[in-house]
Amino acid sequence: MGKSVYFLEAVFRLINMTEAKEVVADSNGEENVKKEESLDEETSELESSIIRQVEYYFGDLNLPRDKFLREQVQLDEGWVPLDILTRFNRLAKLTKDTEIIAKALNKATNGLLEMSEDNKKVRRSPDVPIPEMNEERRKELSNRTIYAKGFPKEATLDDLLKHFKNYDQVENIIMRKFQERSSKKRMFKGSVFITFKTREQAEKFMEGKPHEYQDTELIILWQDDYIAQKQEEYANKKEQKDKRNKDKDNHVEKEELKLPTGTVLHFSGGTDQMKREDIKEALSTIGADVAYIDFKVGDKEGWVRLTKEDTAKGIAEKMTDNKMKIAEADVEFKVLEGEEETTYLQKTVEEMTKRRKNMKNFKSNKGRKGGNKYHGKKRRHDNEDGGNAKKIRSSDS
């Protein structure tokens, strides 16, 4: 329901059923049982869940980012019909009966919600302004948020909500999920972010370590420490990957760009109209296997590099006085040897390496620009009503 944010607030109400009291009295020995308190005056488990869920919808973090609910709030001085709220998934799973919802919300005590006189509408109290979501606010939220890992992958949000009712002032739980490659389904990673009402409550939770869930000890960290840890891991992984790629590139270059010797013919004496195709065609008539012709139209000289090692001399010997008729001109050829050949081949390798790097960078930049199908999109995290949360990284737990 809401836009992507780093946290989404869900107010937990820890309202417990009051046990009926039984009192033994009377001096004459007769037992007198005090009448049980009316259940109508108590808050049932269902009503507690309804209050918590609706307070989440109108809470500090969800309301500013929930486009649909914001639109509804603006229609009637903040009032939203209860039948509109029953379209919200998690509330609908609890009940769609607006009378039950109204009865529950009238028992809310923290002052966030206000019911209309006819019990048909609810709104966030005008006396409770929405905090501005700025950098200071984000830091304040992060300062009272904890990372916990070790939950079973099949656990549901309701399981987690029930478990954390045992702790004071838990405001919000975000289940961290990833998309499973083969099924494309979003799967729970077994870790969550838990936001407490105050820093003090979060510290109390941290001091109570170790914490367990179904006999499994949880890994507990401050969210800021977890993020710093992950950032360091990412940096190390990137550094190692870059080093591997660099070593691989250097190895490939050394292996692939070792050009065979005894393969270079220098030529001169062509016409201004002579083309590389003319040169290749002429040489092929005497059995030359040409790898590359370093020449462009209008040049006075050029070089032919053959494919197989030590074949240049054999091709030159098939010419008449080291000359061939190409494009109406007598073109003279000479075999490069020794330092002259070495210098030319080194220059050729440098140029080939530069071209390959440029091509690799071009493909890499092109891939980053359009190759990511999630480019510009946000990833969902399950929280109170399927709202979104800021992406950490799908591959990390």
From TrEMBL:
Stretches the record annotates as Disordered: 234-253, 352-397
Compositionally biased residues, Basic and acidic residues: 381-397
InterPro entries documented for this protein: La_dom_prot, La_HTH, La_xRRM, Lupus_La, Nucleotide-bd_a/b_plait_sf, RBD_domain_sf, RRM_dom, WH-like_DNA-bd_sf
Domain XRRM residues, every copy: 258-380
Bias kind Basic residues: ranges: 354-380
Subcellular location: Nucleus
Tagged with keyword Ribosomal protein: no
Domain RRM intervals: 144-227
Gene Ontology MF terms in the entry: mRNA binding
A GO-annotated cellular component: cytoplasmic stress granule
Span of domain HTH La-type RNA-binding: 40-132
Keyword Ribonucleoprotein listed: no
GO BP field: positive regulation of translation; tRNA processing
Key words of the record: Nucleus, RNA-binding
SMART domains referenced in this protein's UniProt entry, alphabetically: LA (SM00715), RRM (SM00360)
Protein name stated in the entry: La protein homolog
Organism: Mythimna separata
